[in-house]
Design goal:
Length: 590
């Protein structure tokens, strides 16, 4: 269960009496404090102070909500849409709901989010992650000074250096995946704008930084990652799951290598954590049985976000109200919920849907959409009488289940279809790791069956109206990289990877990353309620749409930072259509 004292840990460098002014080019806002040079910074003079600083320096922003809004996982309930239930009458319906804020309207329409830079927005992410980068650069500078330029590195300093480098690499990895186009290959990605890679402490407001390009950004991400891996150990950690512990570091390495198409390296990094014998791995994967005793959102959150759960490799504490925001106009309803949860499949015998989805703690209704229990809030009261405090959402940033799917994808690209099949079947088996009572109930009601290689080559080989997340081929990958070819025999396995990744990464924002890096085209249907009825505006997101790189904060642009999107870009000029009729097959979300 969640540690009782989790909120007692230091959250920000400011609470360590350290001053970290940032350039106006990096902050979403600028105040009078930044108009003068700092003169009261506390020196980092001991190894323990460096370790404390790194403990406090993890980013507290959550990219889950606005990236979900930018993906095909979320729909507009005000648009005309079909019900979640595929066995119900297929009548179009719509609502007249408000969003949780104007920033959600902007994000869903793929517009720059200008109305807010608070938590759960791109601007909030930009600020938080660059504040973190500056903090770890302070730590790295102190490590250099304490070790006499690396000549007297102690085990504590070596481990701290590894953690700092991994945090810096990770922050820039997330930033480039949000604010830039996806990596294609080294040559093509030189044409796409990257993000500023900050490797020095920012002391003044007039420092300027180039965004360079995606290729150069990834080279620096990989350099920090690989040096960090050489240094990392768990010796400095009291609670390893809230840090880049060794398993989390290698899981992160697998993800970066996967995103840069270094398939063999991705497999090797995953093997470090998972081993190569899936029969030994299966008992370590997520245990659903404690969910039997859950009644409230906080109960489910405690189980999902438990640091003692082996499969949770790393947890990041964020200030986020993602669960609340998902209960308004933009939801996981209609065809999007059907594609993720509610559909027939060979692994269960009824249309009602994936049994594990019901055990996870789905909140909502079939009319208005659903949210999974793993994004449940942990509320920190600052005044219980007044009922005020801070909403925390712990991101399960690296898990053994997602790592297993990442390894399966890498194996598909290596042509190891037997290995990919073994990983995919193990993943599915882990989704039924219920208590015996629940397993008996769902087996009787739903006929749960293990996934087999034959099923993969049958059901996942088709692209029909009932086979969600499946494609006839993956030739669209060649838009991203001409050499990225998935042979016909491997198509069912990539479809299966896509199918399970969409479920596993649901509400984390990572679906948006997958849509970008694979070049999958999708739609948003936006409902405009008028006195004469509802008009659906359909926004098509092509594989190379400039809006796949989310816009950086407006203050950063005003201060001279190059924007992510062309200045001439308008919503009406890119990939938008207004169909004469609503076509369920044409707009079905794959």
């Amino acid at each position: 269960m969640m540690k009782a004292n989790i909120f007692n840990k230091v959250k920000k460098a400011g609470q360590l009496s350290l001053l970290f002014p940032l350039s106006s080019l990096l902050l979403a806002s600028c105040n009078d404090f930044l108009d003068k040079e700092p003169d009261d910074r506390v020196e980092l003079s001991t190894e323990n102070q460096v370790v404390m600083l790194l403990t406090a320096s993890y980013p507290d922003a959550n990219y889950g909500w606005f990236c979900e809004l930018s993906s095909d996982n979320i729909m507009d309930l005000n648009s005309e849409h079909y019900p979640i239930d595929g066995e119900a009458a297929q009548n179009l319906t719509h609502y007249n709901l408000s969003s949780s804020g104007r920033q959600d309207d902007e994000a869903f329409r793929f517009e720059p989010v200008k109305s807010s830079t608070s938590s759960d927005t791109p601007g909030g992410l930009w600020s938080s992650f660059y504040i973190t980068v500056n903090s770890v650069n302070e730590a790295l500078q102190a490590i250099d000074e304490l070790s006499d330029n690396g000549k007297q590195m102690t085990p504590t300093l070596t481990a701290a250096k590894g953690e700092a480098l991994l945090i810096r690499s990770y922050c820039h990895f997330v930033l480039v995946n949000v604010f830039s186009q996806a990596y294609k290959n080294d040559e093509l990605s030189k044409q796409d704008i990257g993000v500023p890679y900050i490797t020095e402490v920012i002391n003044t407001v007039d420092d300027t930084y180039s965004r360079s390009n995606v290729t150069e950004t990834y080279k620096k991400i990989l350099a920090d990652l690989e040096e960090g891996l050489e240094c990392i150990s768990d010796i400095n950690y009291e609670h390893p799951k809230y840090h880049f512990n060794e398993n989390a570091a290698h899981a992160y390495a697998c993800r970066v290598y996967l995103f840069t198409h270094q398939w063999q390296k991705a497999v090797e990094q995953a093997d470090f954590v998972l081993g190569t014998d899936n029969t030994l791995l299966l008992p370590k994967l997520f245990d659903y049985s404690p969910l039997d005793d859950c009644s409230y959102l906080s109960d489910f959150a405690n189980v999902w976000q438990d640091p003692d759960e082996w499969s949770n490799l790393m947890l990041i504490d964020t200030y986020s109200t993602i669960f609340r925001k998902s209960r308004y106009r933009y939801e996981q309803g209609g065809l999007s919920a059907r594609a993720i949860y509610f559909h027939n499949a060979p692994m269960w015998r009824r249309w009602v849907g994936n049994p594990s989805a019901f055990v996870t703690g789905l909140f909502g209704s079939r009319d208005y959409g659903f949210e999974p229990g793993w994004i449940g809030e942990q509320f920190q009261y600052t005044d219980k009488v007044a009922g005020i405090g801070y909403a925390h959402t712990f991101r399960r940033e690296f898990t053994a289940m997602e790592l297993l799917l990442e390894r399966a994808e890498a194996k598909v690209n290596l042509g190891d279809l037997a290995g990919a099949s073994a990983d995919l079947c193990t993943y599915h088996e882990s989704t039924m790791n219920f208590s015996e009572k629940t397993k008996t109930t769902y087996t009787a009601q739903n006929g749960m069956l293990p996934l087999t290689d034959d099923m993969i080559n049958d059901w996942f080989a088709k692209n029909t109206s009932s086979n969600y997340n499946c494609f006839d081929d993956w030739d669209f990958l060649q838009n991203m990289d001409p050499s990225w070819i998935i042979p016909e025999a491997a198509v069912p396995y990539m479809n299966c990877v896509n199918y399970w990744r969409r479920y596993e990464t649901n509400f984390t924002g990572k679906r948006f990353f997958d849509l970008k890096r694979w070049g999958i085209e999708y739609y948003h249907v936006y409902g405009n309620n008028t006195s004469t009825g509802v008009q659906n505006d359909t926004i098509r997101m092509t594989w190379n749409d400039p809006r796949r790189a989310l816009e950086i904060p407006q203050d950063a642009i005003a201060a001279g930072m190059e924007p992510s999107q062309p200045s001439s870009l308008t919503i009406d000029s890119v990939s938008n259509t207004k169909p004469a009729s609503f076509d369920i097959d044409a707009l079905r979300m794959n």
